[in-house]
Amino acid sequence: MSLCFRDAFLSLRRNSITDTEYLSSLLAHFRGVRHPQDSEYDVIVPKFDPFGASIRDLALKTDYEPLESDSLPSLIQPIATLSAIRGHASILQFCLDNGAAFDDYLNGAAEMGSSKYPEVLEVLKAAGWKSKLQVTEEDEAKEGERGPDGRFTPAELQRRFGDIPW
Predict the structure, then answer these.
(1) What is the C-alpha to C-alpha distance for residues 111 and 133, in angstroms, rounded to an integer?
(2) What are phi and psi of 146, to 5 degrees?
(3) Helical (H) or strand (E) element with 55
(4) How far, CA to CA in Å, does 70 sit from each of 65, 67, 88, 120?
């Protein structure tokens, strides 16, 4: 029996399933397994499990034949997110060298992994990644970023963080 993406993530966090069972539940979706919760928007999975969210998007939004055929979509993007979260710098480097791109999920995974694993941060920096949470001296030195009360203006917040889906 496989779990939906959210249940698999929560079960893994509670240590009620192993990493192997977690991955098996996610990858079962490539065999055509679907759960009613899979099609519902979920804020938990993208925010706290970028790897699972990356697999979800690939499994549910990509046109492919089920896993039994030879047309499995490339898993380079989800592998990059997992390697960033788990601190596997060499795997992350391989993924970046072979087409992984900084999307929302990889950026979220990079934020998680770069704070725990210095070697991941080095790979990310070499690839041109910049943390959205890190404010540089250059950012601080720019004029017109703060309003008269000293707070960041809405335009500056937009520049720093992009569109925020409130």
Answers:
(1) 8
(2) -115, 145
(3) helix 50-61
(4) 8, 7, 28, 32
Task: Using alpha carbons, select from 124, 60, 53 the residue that is nearest to residue 89.
Answer: 124
pLDDT in tens, 19-70: 878 888 888 888 788 888 887 878 888 888 888 888 888 888 777 666 554 4
- Only one residue has tokens 């990079």, namely 110
Phi then psi dihedrals of residue 152, to 5 deg: -65, 140
Q: What is the pLDDT of residues 90-138, one digit of tens each?
A: 989 988 988 889 998 899 999 999 989 999 999 999 999 988 766 555 5
| Confidence (pTM) | 0.52
CB atoms within 10 A of CB 125: 12
Distance separating alpha carbons of residues 9 and 37, to the nearest angstrom: 13
